[in-house]
Amino acid sequence: MSVAQIQPQVTITTVSPTTMSTPAAPAAPFYDKGLANTVAADTQMSFIDGGKGVLEYVGIDIDTLARNSTYEETVYLLWNRKLPTKAELDALKSALQAEYEIPDAIYDMIKSFPKDAVPMHALRTLVSALALHDKDAESSETNPAGIERAKRQSLRLVAKTPTLIANFDRHRSGKAFVRPDKSMDIATNFLWMLNGEKPTDAMAKGLDICLILHADHGLNASTFAARVTIATLSDMYSAMTTAVGTLKGPLHGGANEEVMIMLDEIGSIEKVDDYVKGKLERKELIMGFGHRVYKAYDPRATYLKTFAKQIATDTGNLRLFEMSQRIEGIVLAAKADKGIFPNVDFYSATTYHCLGIKTDLFTCMFALSRMSGWCGHCIEQLMDNRLIRPQAKYNGPHAATYAPMAQR
Length: 408
Ligand code: CMC
Description:
about 400 residues; Citrate Synthase, domain 1; CATH 1.10.230.10; three-stranded antiparallel β-sheet; about 5% strand
């Protein structure tokens, strides 16, 4: 895979061997802070046109998938680059269900966690610990057997992550563990384990849609981190641990929690204007707005906005939706000309809240879904691997003196 310098979303200028000074000379490195103008991987999973606000998975518009698909079907699509037949989908669902359960030793490990542990710390640790109980968790190889092993590890990771999150939450709430129910789909089973009761169809559907919308998103920071790890031929558990840690940051997956904290802080619609305008005047970030790639409305936010309104109405939380809408109006008036629009995290905060999910679990929910995208990208990386190793621009001194300790 070539690393190419691009004009964002417009043209890709690859370095032609004929333009190089010597045939073997590498392209001259250029400094691209934040890698915003660097293409560092091939993918056939998701396509983003940030200028037009388009997101497709394997060519299918995200809105169409949110309206018609299921999370399991989306996982199949991302991993196989085609929609499944009924038999293929049933086979994937059964394979996932067979892997929902986690080892007893992992339940014991959860019991040992402090009840005030940050959920993403708990998740990162548990994803890593799963490798200790998987005899098939060796390092990756790029041959067909190695790719198959990576796929088996992926299946386990996607299937077990909901069990880890829900049962960590039960532990910290002083509740008994709820074992996964292998007759349920991923969204229903997660809410069942989290709450100890079967969710309504509407709640399960709501979560399923959120999982579809968050499943993949090009070479975002956590996906890039996962690909860097797997490109060293490490194992999938290591790559997913890297990805969970990267997603945790407030500039990435952590923003949805920050949005809910902001809504709680504001408290009422009357206080929105002062709060938001004050933040903008102080040049502070409004969480849930802006995106490295989208300079138009994030298409995931378009769908979630409609959905959040519905679920907020159904669950008696319309106040939250109205506050969000007002925040959006003020931010757009001030920042739309700079390409700052709501991103996926803005309305997913209201949606998760209405689904009864605690604020500090929101980023774990993002991880639960994105696990499928991370795994798919790692498999793509293994299928056409090259170590990912950019360069740093050294700004320090040269030929410096090594002073003995006594002289410093
Ligand atoms: N609120 C107010 N101003 C903003 C915001 C915001 N949320 N985001 C960007 N800006 C301003 C920024 O201050 C800068 O202004 P100026 O040109 O005057 O310095 C301009 O817009 C360009 O921003 P940038 O920092 O160059 O954009 P970036 O591509 O480096 O950062 C971002 C993208 C997502 C990190 C940033 O927009 C941000 O911090 N947003 C808030 C956090 C957030 O919601 N993150 C979730 C992203 S979506 C989920 C995901 O894919 O991870």
